[in-house]
Amino acid sequence: MKKILLSLLVFSTISFIGCNSGGGDPKIVLEQFFDALSKNNMEAARKLATKDSKSMIDMMEMGMKMGKDKKESKKFSKANMEIGVAKIDGDKAVIPVKEKTSGESLNYTLKKEDGSWKVAFDKSSLMSKKKKKMNEKGINP
Length: 141
Known about the structure:
Elements: H1 2-21, H2 26-38, H3 42-48, H4 54-65, H5 70-74, E1 81-83, E2 87-89, E3 92-99, E4 105-113, E5 116-119, H6 123-136
Antiparallel strand pairs: 1-3, 2-3, 3-4, 4-5
Helix pairs in contact: 2-3
């Protein structure tokens, strides 16, 4: 009986730690990423983003330090977004996010890196999102 209880305790602890890290649920990772950006915590954002995203996060951080992007961090506030259901396909997940004030939706891509979900916030992912939005509005770049 003690072995069963000990096994359950160990399993519960591992499950609890795994759930809190966000590594197993792309939606949780995206929420944590947005939370870090809204608080200007770029170090936390870097840990939740893909390796390729480092340069974009560095640029955002530079802009924030220069005081130009104060509105930028507010747009990532949980109160301003509605995060949809993740569509997972292997090592890639796509999550629709609707901005409540404008009603516009964007799909955010997450990729598995080293066994954990990471937000693809790199130049090519962001440009792809912008291009799709422009096409939806009838603007051909």
